[in-house]
Amino acid sequence: MQVGVLALQGAFREHREAFDALGVSTTEVRTPDDLGGVDALIIPGGESTTILKLLETSALAAPLKERLNDAMPTFGTCAGLILLARVVVDGRADQVPLNAIDLTVRRNAYGTQLASFEVPLTIEGMDGAPFPGVFIRAPVVEAVGEHVEVLAEHSGRPVLVRQGRIWASTFHPELSGDLRVHERFLDEVMR
Ligand code: GLN
């Protein structure tokens, strides 16, 4: 399986490093051709409004929507989750999300004081120590549809979810120094 990492803006290098550490090579995706060559895609954290704009200018928006409709294994982290959502609250007026996962998300919902923090997370089905959840100007998932499975919560809000082969987190597993979330995503989508 060839894993692509959307490399328009944000923390894409850190995702590549996490897969490298797992012995999985990745491709940077910046063009429709790049996207055509991958079997799975990581959408990194960064700034969702900027990434959305760059998706349009790089002509990736339409082919990406098609691949998401075809259930390409995809993992969106932080801004990536915002892009994959069905509904975005406090987005820019013209921020139309990709609607690939049935959830409502509020941008920058922790406010300025708590803009960035780290908390231990209990992830369903993951043994061992809690996972270090790194949150950076994170969004909050306010509602999920019935087909969305919640794998971890913080303060009663979902922070790691999946709907079929589409995964999303409000935290940054690529910045935690812990590879278990990347490993789990790979294990499950390669089955
Ligand atoms: N606040 C950013 C946004 O709205 C997301 C932050 C992140 O990806 N770390 O896009």
Helical stretch tally: 6
Strand portion, in percent?
Answer: 25-35%
Task: Catalogue the unreliable spans.
Answer: none
| Average predicted local confidence, pLDDT | 95
**Alpha-carbon distance between the termini?**
11 Å
Strand tally: 12
Radius of gyration: 15 Å
Brief sketch in words of this structure:
27% of the residues lie in helices and 30% in strands. The protein is an alpha/beta fold and 191 residues long.
Can you give a write-up of this model?
Helix content is 27%, strand content 30%. It has a 7-stranded mixed sheet. It has a 3-stranded mixed sheet with strand order 5-6-9. It has a two-stranded antiparallel sheet with strand order 7-8. It has one domain: Class I glutamine amidotransferase (GATase) domain (Rossmann fold, 3-Layer(aba) Sandwich), CATH 3.40.50.880. The model has no long low-confidence stretch (mean pLDDT 95). The protein has helices spanning 12-21, 32-36, 48-57, 61-69, 79-84, 180-190; strands at 3-6, 26-29, 40-43, 74-77, 87-89, 103-106, 116-121, 131-136, 140-144, 149-154, 157-163, 166-169. The N and C termini lie close together (11 Å). The protein has 191 residues and is of the alpha/beta class. It contains 6 helices and 12 strands. It is globular, with a radius of gyration of 15 Å. Bound molecules: glutamine. Glutamine binds next to helix 5. The site of glutamine has 11 residues, from helix 5.
